[in-house]
Amino acid sequence: VQLQASGGGLVQAGGSLRLSCAASGSIFSIVAMGWYRQAPGKERELVANIISGGSTNYADSVKGRFTISRDNAKNTAYLQMNSLKPEDTAVYYCNAAPCPWCADFGSWGQGTQVTVSS
Fold first, then answer.
1. How many other C-beta atoms lie within 10 A of the C-beta of residue 100?
2. How far apart are CA 98 and CA 50, in angstroms?
3. What is the mean pLDDT of residues 81-89?
4. Is 37 exposed, middle or buried (0-12, 13-18, 19+ CB in 10 A)?
5. Which of 16, 56, 64, 107 could form an SS bridge with 1, CB 3.0 to 4.6 Å?
6. Confidence bin at 30 (pLDDT 50/70/90)
7. pLDDT at 21 over 90
8. Distance of CA 107 to the CA centre of its chain
9. Quick one: 24 exposed, middle or buried, by C-beta within 10 A (0-12, 13-18, 19+)?
10. d(CA 95, CA 107)
11. Which of 92, 70, 107, 73 is nearest to 17 (CA)?
């Protein structure tokens, strides 16, 4: 599976961004798609994921502000990010995995930088 991420950028606190992650290749093997982020000096963390069937999971820090969705016809996952905070600044990576909680066995897209200014 190959993943192409897009949509990062610079935004002021309180603003919004939408990230996209387009999958190609062996898409039949994808069970879960997710977004992870890594800030400088910090470990990579799960932001949100969506499982085949539509169930979603979010980090507590983004609940109520971020929404993950998936368009199966376009093989694309989206992360709508609203009410952004400076602490959301990080490199965001999309992931496509063959099972719900096995991101490390899946494919990663290139990172996209999200910077939120105060």
1. 16
2. 12
3. 98
4. buried
5. 107
6. very high
7. yes
8. 13
9. exposed
10. 6
11. 92
Sequence letter at residue 60: D
Of 43, 36, 18, nearest to 103 (Cα)? 36
pLDDT band for position 41 (cuts 50, 70, 90): very high
CA–CA distance, 28 with 96 (Å, rounded to integer): 11
Cβ-contact 30, 2 below 8 angstroms: no
Confidence tier at 118 by pLDDT (50, 70, 90): very high
In sign, the C-alpha dihedral spanning 43, 61, 16, 70 is positive
Does 10 score more than 90 pLDDT? yes
In the predicted structure, residue 53 carries a pLDDT above the cut 90? no
What angle (nearest 5°) sits at the alpha carbon of residue 64, between those of residues 4 and 73?
Answer: 35
Contacts of 115 (CB under 8 A, 6+ apart): 9, 10, 11, 89
